[in-house]
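Not sure how to ask, but would you mind making up any protein sequence you like and the tokens describing how it folds?
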Amino acid sequence: MDAAGYATLNRQSGLMREMGVVANNIANASTTGFRREGVVFAEYVAAMDEDPSLSMAHASGRHVDLTQATLAQTGGAYDFAIQGEGFFLIETPQGERLTRAGAFTPSAEGELVTPDGYRLLDAGGAPVFIPPDAKGVALSRDGTLSANGQPIAQIGLWRPADPLALRHQTGTMFDGGALEPVEDGVVMQGMLEDSNVQPVSEIARMIEVQRAYELGQKFLDAEDDRVRGVIQALGR
């Protein structure tokens, strides 16, 4: 295969990866706290010993869109939404994870957990515990959680110390590497943050990627016909 074929195949592989990311965005357009992702293409140059170097497009990574999404009012005492920067810190079997999905419920032990049973951690990295006799649970904008008129926990907001270290793990969970507290974030009670995916934009992007892939496939088919023709001509 010649250089044009290798470059096109590499481009096709990147487009397939982007199609998968766009499809995942569309599938999570209604998922609470979901963050839209995009594929980052970069130029990859393969240096040759004697021939000219080969430049190819390479899908080098994913970009997480942290744009604020709409806040939907639920009225739930343990439904929390972040306005501004920051993530909730969650304890999982794989380690601490970040999320913007703030739907929590008290477990049998009285700890606030996600729908998957992962514990919410406070500003000090400890589980948030709700007393059995808690009444009138209230959350102030600075993250102070109170029950019976007394503070019981401080909901912490966190972000990666290096913004480029944020990596999507699964669902609405992210790994941020080394973390630092967010000082100016606001936490709202009785609300949840919607997904920041714009379905119309994602569908339009899916069509663009599909057309680009089809054009690349047509080029590969034409290149294959050309090579076959040359081989048949030389074999006569």
In short: The first helix runs from residue 3 to 27. The longest strand covers residues 54-64. The chain has a mean pLDDT of 87.
